Amino acid sequence: MIYEVKVYFPAGIPLDAQGPTLLAFERHLRSLVELDVRVVKDLKGDDSRLRVMMTPAQRAKL
Amino acid sequence: MNEEFLAHTITDSPILAGALMLDHSKIGWWRDRVEAWDRGEKIAPVTMDVAWTRKCQAACSFCYAQAQSSEGGEITREIAFQFLEDAAEIGVKGVSLISDGESSMVDFYADSIVHGAKLGLKMGVGTNGIAFDRAILEQILPHLSYFRVNFSAGEKKRYAEIMGVKQAVYDRVLENIRTAVEIAARDNLAVTINMNLVSDPKDADQLLPFARLAKSLGVKYGIIKHCATDPDGILKVDYADYAALEDTFRQCEALSDADFRCVVKWNRLKDEGKRAYSKCFGTPFVLQMSGNGLVAPCGPLFNEKYRAFHIGNITKTRFRDIFNSPRYWEVITYLGSDEFNPQERCAVNCLQHLTNDWLFKFKTGQVVFPLTPAPVHPEFL
């Protein structure tokens, strides 16, 4: 069984701090429990707006 | 998948296209670096796949970039050039401007290729081939090891559907490929011009038209490769469906002759893409960078969800400093540790897959360093 732990970061917490925190959390939790723990950020990256906005603009020039 | 199909996938029998190795990892020819890594030393990547932007004019149905969104910045000319200088200084050998975005959309694209080559880096590009003209091709081709055009169809109407562009783009890209072939032949350039089709089984009607088209254009080879899938199910391909295409793949390969090879990446298609190795050893040798500057071990971990494995961003920190940071080796070694099993955590067929496979076999005494001369372009694993 996979145990996906989601961590929510409120605005203002630097990205540079989030990554090491998530990895440290995962390593620590896995050391405490013998479970398939995976710590992920509770935000799925989505820059589809950027891609969608760009695509018509670029296509129009073709 | 039947035994006849699997017979194509014997990993100790490299399928060579001339002196080109296209369906295996070349990591075995980097003996010094592998031995250093085996001793636990921190090593520089041999190859880096990078992008200068996440933008793209096309909207290919199979594009993995759809799953790779993350927080990042804009890579400027200055940042890109610094990155190349740092990469060369650190010991990176080959830089591919490929995937995640269409790097040719930035105005410093050609200059960056020239700059990278002058630094001693081998430069390669994978592109949709749209934003080129003769002048750009004349400028970049002498400095490239390979020029690969992703052209995942053979017929104009289907090309437009699959690549998400107007039909007129088909003619433009074909003209650019013809021009590139002409320039390379005219000047006897070392650049390998080739075409690439990402095979989604539902678009199998385009396999043979693609192979015939590639041959007619005079490119060195045409590659037919798998479609990668992501763990979150954005890209949906059933690898079991590739078995039914075996005869068509064979027909494509049969178009090969002395001047042209059509190569199916059988090693990527076998076992439905499942991994035989339980540790990810490949990322210190093949590292990736997103078009927003994010440095991460691999493309499948680009997404913001996987921030735990994000190492740094060149729009904020120079690459040499990212590489020299404790964070770099912490992430890389975690992926190669007992705590991270790619069989369970990763989607099939990542960029590092065949390198991972070789390194795992090396660590477990199943392979030794090859004695034959290195194939062409060893800098691109």
Shape of chain B: globular
Unreliable stretches of chain B (pLDDT < 50, length at least 5) are 1-18
The helix/strand order of chain B is HEEHEHEHEHEHHEHEHEHEEEHHHH
Write down the Rg of chain A: 18 Å
Largest interface: A-B, 30 and 42 residues
Tell me the total number of β-strands of chain B: 12
The whole-number mean of residue pLDDT values of chain A reads 82
Strand tally of chain A is 2
Distance between the termini of chain A: 50 Å
Question: Could you explain the architecture of this structure?
Answer:
The complex is a heterodimer of chains A (about 60) and B (about 375). Chain A has helices spanning about 15-30, 50-60, and strands spanning about 1-5, 35-40. By secondary structure, chain A is an alpha+beta fold. The radius of gyration of chain A is 18 Å and the shape is extended. The termini of chain A are far apart. Chain B is of the alpha/beta class and about 375 residues long. Chain B has 14 helices and twelve strands. Chain B has a ten-stranded mixed sheet. In chain B, strand 1 (about 15) and strand 2 (about 20) form a beta hairpin. Chain B is globular, with a radius of gyration of 19 Å. The model of chain B is unreliable at about 1-20 (pLDDT under 50). Chains A and B meet through helix 1, strand 2 and helix 2 of A and helix 7, strand 12 and helix 12 of B.
Provide a short characterization of the protein structure:
With 62 residues, chain A is α+β, with helices and mostly antiparallel strands. In chain A, 50% of the residues lie in helices and 19% in strands. Chain A has helices spanning 15-32, 48-60, and strands at 2-7, 36-41.
List the helices and strands and how they pair.
The complex is a heterodimer of chains A (62) and B (381).
Chain A: E1 2-7, H1 15-32, E2 36-41, H2 48-60
Parallel strand pairs in A: 1-2
Chain B: H1 3-6, E1 16-17, E2 20-21, H2 31-38, E3 47-50, H3 77-90, E4 94-97, H4 109-118, E5 122-127, H5 134-140, E6 144-150, H6 156-163, H7 167-186, E7 192-198, H8 207-217, E8 221-225, H9 246-253, E9 261-264, H10 266-269, E10 286-289, E11 294-296, E12 312-313, H11 319-324, H12 326-335, H13 342-345, H14 353-363
Helix pairs in contact in B: 6-7, 8-9
